[in-house]
Amino acid sequence: MSAPSNSIKGRAFGDRMLLALVILLSIIMIAPVLWVIGLSLKENAELMANPNSVFHAPYTLKNYINTIGTSSVFRWVLNSIIVSGGLTLGTLILSSLAGYGFARLNFPGRNILFVIVLFGLAVPEQAVLVARHQIFSMLKFHNTYHGLILPGLSASFGVFLMTQYFRAIPKELDEAAMLDNASRFKIFWKVLLPLTVPAQATLGIFTFLGAWNDYFWPLISATKKDMFTLTVGMASTQTNFAQSEGIGFLMAQAVFAGAPILIIYLFFQKYIVTAVSGAAVR
Amino acid sequence: MADQMTIRETAAPAVGVRVPSANIYAPQWRNFVFVAPFLFFFTTLLILPLFWGMWLSVHKADTFSTGRFVGLDNYVRLVHDKVFLQSVWNTFYFVLLTVPALALIGLFLALCLNRRTRTAAVLRTLFFSSSVLSVTIVTLIWRIVYIPNVGLLSTIYGWFGATAPAFISDPSLAMIGIAIATIWWCIGLPMMLFLSALQQIPQDIYEAAALDNANRWQTLRSITLPSIKRTFILVIIIQIVLQFQLFGQAWLMTRGGPNNLTKPIVLYIYDTAFRRWDLGMGAAASEMLFVLILIAAMAQYLVTRNKGDQA
Amino acid sequence: MKMNAILLAAVSAGAMMLANPSFAATELTVQRFFGACDADFGTNTDVSKAVGECGIITSLINKFNADNPDVHVTVTTVEWPGYDQLTAQFASGDAPDIVTIHESVLSDYQSKGLLLPLDDVLKSVGVTPDAFTDAARNGATKDGKIYGLPIDSWTMLYHINMDLFKQAELVNADGTPILPKSVDELLAQAEQFKQKTGKPYFVQNLANETALFTRNLYTYLFQQDSDFFADPKHVELNTPEAKKVVEMYKTIFAKDYTTKGLDYGGAINAFLAGEGGVQLNGTWVVGDYNAQSETNGTALNKGGYAVYPYPQLFDGAHAQYADGHTWAVSAKEDRTAEQTAAIGKFLKFFTDNNFDWSRTGHLPAVKSIIASDQFKALPHRDTISAVAELGRSLPPEVERQFAIQEIIGEEMAAATSGQKETDAALADAETRINELLANL
């Protein structure tokens, strides 16, 4: 056994090493973002001449003013809000109803249907994408909000989550009401739904973030600039730096595009973290 | 909806001969109403396209004309297509690059930041914050890190008079470049999952260990790691499923280049269906991806089911 | 009575607006590449002030909107070349009215019946096919009809930093650059350049680039009279001629005669910063580079900027790969007469203002402009006008030329960087292209 003092020293050294490593990792996390912000505050010509000019004045807000004046980034943020919000609302409604149905009620074929829905968890979006695109073409759904929202409504995850949650609620709560022959919807609405708010929050956050960050489907469905979501719009400006209005401008756009979701994250951090960890425990 | 429900409710006793009012858990068709809306979307937007895709995959179909039946031709072409095989390998390579790193770094961060200090809280916020950004912002940030001239890397290397590695264009580095950006983007979720697992380890076990004079390494090895083994496997599987679907990063950073070395399966599907207009073959590639993901999902199911057995 | 009259007037006014949508300006949707530069030219209608492809096209469309209050054009800017998006739009029945399409790509869409033949529309605004140069007209004509309004002919060029060429002693007595006449000369001059200046001879965008490789290959295959697309459904690339070209670029790469790891934008910046002698880039940057060379303190201002067609390195035909940009019009059944008329106006506007577009460096598509003093007076046109005769495209029957370009570029990139053997790369390119063409 080593002397206690020694072990404490060793511990302090080890702690410092760990701390250094964590600090290094956090620098890696934050440096690219600071670089982006730095570039966004510089004149393009100056950057091209010397990238080190990021570290000293003059700084300018010109790129931001140009973004406000000419970029479609606000329109794209709005589209993303409509699509993500619509999808979140729709998912919450459908999943709660179905979760209640599967967990609390019985109907012919319930179990087999639930297995089929579970199977849906294993179907990646990409596997149905080609066919879905063709079907939406026939229905003339592309370049519309519902065209962007509808595919997400078929995801099973929410139903799975809500079913699990409804099952966990003690049966005594609604059994009495059911024996009284109260309306099933009333029971669902008045008795059980209020109890599921935490699960709603988890599901809502996941759905919203997922929709906000979705890229693949909007890429092939929203092909008009006015219908671009933020992800597609940002992608459309970045693929060829040379053809665009300069790196500073692009970076200012990126800051505009990234800021709303980061601010939302900071505000709702507690809920988001609970939601993520909550999903993990399950 | 509510009105409809009440009407059905009052109608029910009339036909209630078969359904004794006491047996509230007997199967009743009216209960189906609750799951019907979801099932409608599920069937039309997932199941139907799934079968439609299978149908397409055995047809020679292009974007602008209806196809003809070709049997398994598309699949045969697919397994003979060097680019497809390359893309399958690329996908596995990418998973291999990212998943262990995500699990290990995530675990390391969780172990370090699992304390009630303010600094730890701030750092947790920081490490998770990148996860909320969308893929296009992440790739924009990392292209700006990697690009020659005004890139962050080339600037830093420039201070030492060195040339930065060409992370986007060098054939041997391109996938690693994408993997680094991906790890940066996705590190938050594994960290959070590990943190919540760590917090569920009962504190008294640690106190007992402290009494036994166990050092930190011993505690970690004999208490902490065994308690989160299942979370570790869960993280690995979740990440495999997630990273298997790589698309955005590769498409936006390298377009799958140089010479298809960073083209994942999903990008191959996109290329085939929407750039080569070969819907049938794109659908066939989709089915292959589906099978691969199904296998991973099965593994996940087995792991979570075992958990249920033990609980 | 009075009340009734007002009501009647209101109703009929409403009815008129419903019946006649041109009461408001006719809406046209235009989709184009050439980049976005709204910050600098978003409201500029004085075309003469604009420089470069993006600035000039943005200003031209602004001017069209200002000149034609009865038409309103909304522009979607897509990343080059934008065909993924266009295909998706056509598939979903949401194509823009007017869209930029390369001559080499027109037949992909035309063969599916997605484009409107423009002969009647052009006739109605007084534009006749013989107004265009032969190259432009032939490139835009498919099955005897015009499917795109040609706006230019373009090709790749040697953009030269004369300051570095002087340092490398690669300048003739008359001040013109010494350019190679054979592969050996090219390699020798590149070596000399590297020795004297310490910089690579070529500035190339090789990072995830396919178009440049392919255009280079086509050019030097033409110069060897290699008929690699004798059958438009079948390419022959695993040939000694192709091997010669790939081996040349492989040597250039291996001996550091070229920049490496730069993307398109990076290559432009590197050339403008004086980091190499010759940039391989298209006609479209001539205007930009010339403007740079006239700005004090730039690398091109030091010793001057010169631009030439690709040198003739082989004994065959004097030729180099060329293509052209067109405005194509989507075929739509529900288009009103007003909209068609507005499209005619737009196309006529671009024909009339073809000179401004040619200031980019592209060769004009309109015959009268190429012969005009105004055009000849533009800088460097004395050296690059030759490409009008040199320009050659792939046989027009070859479909999916952009997909083919990508395959060739990928394989050539692998071969020149030494990642793959030349023979294997050419064989793979050939197999992949033929597989593509066999399964259209």
Question: What's the short version?
Answer:
By secondary structure, chain B is mainly α. Chain B has 15 helices and two strands. Chain C is an alpha/beta fold.
Description:
The complex is a heterotrimer of chains A (282), B (311) and C (440). With 282 residues, chain A is mainly α. Helix content of chain A is 74%, strand content 0%. Chain A has 2 domains: 1-70 and 240-255, no CATH class; 73-238, MetI-like (MetI-like fold). Chain A has helices spanning 4-40, 44-49, 62-70, 73-104, 110-120, 125-139, 145-149, 157-168, 172-179, 184-192, 197-213, 216-221, 230-238, 247-267, 269-281. In chain A, α4 (73-104) crosses α8, α8 runs antiparallel to α11 (197-213) and α9 (172-179) runs antiparallel to α10 (184-192). The radius of gyration of chain A is 25 Å and the shape is globular. Chain B has 311 residues and is mainly α. Chain B is built from 15 helices and 2 strands. Chain B has helices at 2-11, 32-57, 73-80, 82-113, 118-129, 135-146, 152-159, 174-186, 188-199, 203-211, 216-227, 229-244, 248-253, 265-275, 279-310; strands spanning 59-62, 65-69. In chain B, 47% of the residues are buried. Chain C is globular. In chain C, a hairpin with a 2-residue loop joins β4 (141-142) and β5 (145-146). Chain C has 2 domains: 24-150 and 325-361, Periplasmic binding protein-like II (D-Maltodextrin-Binding Protein, domain 2); 156-322 and 396-438, Periplasmic binding protein-like II (D-Maltodextrin-Binding Protein, domain 2), CATH 3.40.190.10. Chain C has helices at residues 2-19, 38-41, 52-67, 83-91, 103-110, 119-124, 134-140, 162-167, 183-197, 211-222, 240-254, 264-272, 286-293, 299-303, 337-352, 354-358, 367-370, 373-376, 381-384, 387-390, 401-416, 422-438; strands at residues 26-32, 71-77, 98-102, 141-142, 145-146, 149-150, 152-161, 202-203, 278-282, 305-309, 320-323, 325-329, 363-364, 391-392. In chain C, the strands form 3 sheets. In chain C, strands 7, 8, 9, 10, 11, 13 and 14 form a 7-stranded mixed sheet that branches. Chain C has a 5-stranded mixed sheet with strand order 2-1-3-12-6, with helices on both faces. Chain C has a two-stranded antiparallel ribbon with strand order 4-5. Chain A binds chain C through residues 48, 66, 69-71, 133-134, 136-137, 140-143, 220-221, 223-225, 236-237, 239-245, 249, and chain C through 29, 33-40, 42, 54, 76-80, 85, 88-89, 91-94, 263-265, 268-269, 272-273. Chain A: It is found in: Cell membrane. Chain A: The chain crosses the membrane at residues 18-38, 76-100, 112-133, 145-166, 187-212, 247-268. Chain A: Pfam families: BPD_transp_1 (PF00528).
